[in-house]
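User: I'm curious whether this sequence folds into something compact or stays loose and floppy. Could you predict its structure so I can see for myself?
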Amino acid sequence: MPTQIPTKTPRVGAYESGEYRNLFAETIGKSDTEIQAKIDAAFQQLFYGDDTSERVYYPVGTDMAYLLDTGNDDVRSEGMSYGMMIAVQMNKKEEFDRIWKWTKTYMYQTDGGYKGYFAWHCKPDGTQLAANPASDGEVWFVMALFFADARWGSGEGIFNYRAEAQAILDVALNAKELGGELATNLFDSETKQIVFVPQLGNNSKFTDASYHMPHFYELWARWADKNNDFWADAAIASREFLPTAVHPETGLAPNYSYFDGRPYEDDYHGQFRYDAFRVGANIGMDYLWFYPLDWYTEQANRQLSFFASQGINDYGAEYALDGTVLAGHRATGLIATNAVLAMAADPEIGKPFVQALWDADAPTGKYRYYDGLLYMMGLLQASGNFQIYEPGVTPRAEIPPAPPRAIEGKFSPVTGRALLLIGPDAAGVNAYFDKLVTSPGGVNVDLSLAKPDIALLDELARKYPNSTLSVGLSLAGLADAIPQGQADAQIGQLLDALNAYQRPVFLRLGPEFDLSAKKLQPGSYVAAWQTIHNEIQAKGSTNVALVWHSAAACESPFGAYPAEDWYPGDEVVDWVAVSYSEQPAGCENQSVEAVMQFAREHFKPVLLVATPTSDEAWATALFEFAHANNDAVRALAYFNTAPDLFNNPDFLQAWKAETGQQFWLRGGPMLFSTLGY
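Assistant: Here's the prediction. I'll summarize afterward.
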């Protein structure tokens, strides 16, 4: 006998009213300022926090990014689609476009058995680990793209958000006609329910309750270019399915279910596990947006009362459907989804769960990915900041203003991050490491082109395999000879060595070229630079960034000649470097500022090259300068020529506190990909 579905209440949902409840304000009295600060802090940590313990969002190059499942070291369509939804809800267009471009570049199936779908997981380098799609990723991609079209307007190509959303919907219902021979439709044609995997065989013969998002399908029924009746029926089908899938006493849903609501016949997935966390959030959001069924309140009260009986601060992550504890550890993701389910619950039942989410911190550590993303979305949903953006209705005034031309360069971190390099040689680097016990973002050695001692560089490269390399290359005695081909052997030897390291290398050609002691002339210097650049191109070297390093002498920032005479040209210069040192009275950092301004005018990232003095306060001024100029400063090379400074406990503690901030990129297994290598 089919389940009897309760009648719809006469209330109006947020889709019609445009009003979104803020549970933090209405149930626990938090102010708008407190709530926004908590949301911003969570976003900052998950997207721009520490590389190894906090963030899950990793930019790649200048225009892509992925979200990493840190527990499995892979990239999943689930996380990518969640990242896009978080970005569009928070009006973060750059992050949205970066994630979407990575997704289309590496996950989209242009041909093969799953043509038109997205591979469900890949390696961080984009290599596909499995070609078949995951149904929830496709659903979230569609919804995020529709919202992006409404909020920002569609562009061209893959940034025609509406066209991209519609293309996924077309494949979802016409996989055989538009897709590959291994795929099925995303929705079962008979029951109109979403399938676990749109794949020939058993995986398309059952469903996952957490994939049932009728509040999304309801919007597709209104906005899609075609098949609108099907999407309306799919919303109804999911609302009819959900009451059959949950346990009548505990309210718990299994990970997987058959289309009639029976739990999947599997000891693991037939129980309440991590997938099933999301069922509560989906019910809460459907209730908020559309108020479809009185059953939703009954279900919310039932499920939250069960967890309250386990202890509001004690309930575990995994249960048998009858309430038997299967895993007692806490899960921030479940804390978040239960708070969202409180949207549909009676206030006295829901309030403790809202408080529990407020009291929870954003997850850190190896398994921060899934819990962290559910936590981030939970904050947005519970605070009324997870909203419907309707095409043709959302004011275009919300579109972020077009950013100015970006300062960027080869292997440059994104704005707000800077690479921390240590030099000037192995002795300085090793002394630094002995005190800090932290791999630098890069290690430096100075060489002479006349006789490049590659062994010095080899020593550092072997000891610090997760650090970039920096080379200051003296052209002394060879500047005039290089354009004549008289130094080809030395150049070839050096470039062959640099190629072999398979990591980013920052090559400062003729460092501090504008000091009279270097005995360089602009004409021969520029000609030598262009010759070396051409040799790099001829060898196909992709890991070398050329850095133009000015001494910024106090008396004249570019010596006896104007900057333009020394400058080889934007097309052959990747970075600008400037020496930052203690300046005599009356000069301060005027010359440094002149070089900074030149870099900004040419849209080049800046590498500060700093040599310490005996004054410990100097380091504070250095870091303040880097932060104050973080629009351009993307790296700092600290030459550890006074290692005794770190024997001072106060200096060491202050240095650790500063360089431990997320602003500074240090050595690690993800560093090179973060820099776009």
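Summary: Residues 1-10 have pLDDT under 50 and may be disordered. The first helix runs from residue 14 to 17.
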